[in-house]
Amino acid sequence: MHWRAKGVLQKVLGHVPGGEEAHYVLQRRFGGLRGFTREFDIKMDDWRLMAGHLHKAGVPIAGARLFEIGSGWYPTFPFACYLGGARQVITVDLNRHIKPDLVRECAGNLGRHTALIAEACGIPEDEVRQRQQQLVERLQRNDDVAAATDGVVVYDAPADASRTSIPAHELDCVFSNSVLEHVNPEAVDEIFREAMRILAPGGIMFHSVNCGDHYAYVDSKINQLNYLRYSDREWRRWDNAFLYQNRMRAYEFVDRATAVGFDIVLNTECAREKRLAELAAMPVHPQFAHIPPERLCVTSIDFIGRKRPAEVSP
């Protein structure tokens, strides 16, 4: 599918009654949700990487109090954390996207990953498997997410991650996966400030950001740097309610976290030869001319910011 055609279709759906449901149906039949198992397994691999990063940063999932930004249609990360022994997982979304059929499918698919979860969290697989089976049974009898997880997973939507009612210094970790690239830059700053407030001293903020052009996933004729050809004004033609892309570069997220006061303890920013070659072969809009190629070309990053142990926010 041509990327411009998808952009126009999504823009139209974002402005008509019933557009959100129509978009979901299209995703189920023709988009990323058509092959749910493959999509789910990719998310679980992302979760595995996050669990490893958190463990190395001194915040293992077992026993942790976690806050996810961007729940999406089904709660893969919160459910995996629950199975791994998390004490609390609050997950929020600006809009209520969660779908009961996908929630049940997510819980069922976790049965194929109990060994992975057990190893990542350092707990017996039997314990993980028992929780997973209980989760499936409770969801099948139409329990909501909180009831199905004994109150461990709390789903809150609509909710604003930059303005929560969570008490200060309450959590061990705030995290997101492929979310911040869809957030207005000013709101990114607000989310980081709120994370600083709600994290306990020594707590961490982990974000995995896919900051490449997402239209490249549906149009093989373009690459993940394609959107750098356009000015902000031009790009607004293709931005829409279902696929807003802020086009922030990887280093900008880290710089903004540092500006709020986080100490960066993980930064996977890396200029890859393939991306550098793609960048050299295409025109780039002058508004990006001040960014060195080795930073402009980066299309993904994982980073961790730690709240200083002695710091107490007002």
From TrEMBL:
Domain (Methyltransferase type): give its ranges. 157-206
What are the TM regions of this chain, as residue ranges? Answer: none
Q: Does the keyword Ribonucleoprotein apply?
A: no
Q: Does the keyword Methyltransferase apply?
A: yes
Record's keyword terms, sorted? Methyltransferase, Transferase
* Gene Ontology MF annotations: methyltransferase activity
Its Gene Ontology biological processes? methylation
Q: Which domain of life is it from?
A: Bacteria
Name a Pfam family for this protein. Methyltransf_11
Gene3D superfamilies (UniProt xref): Vaccinia Virus protein VP39
> Which N-terminal residues, if any, form the signal peptide?
none
| Entry-linked InterPro entries | Methyltransf_11 (IPR013216), SAM-dependent_MTases_sf (IPR029063)
What name does the UniProt record give this protein?
Class I SAM-dependent methyltransferase
* Origin species: Dyella kyungheensis
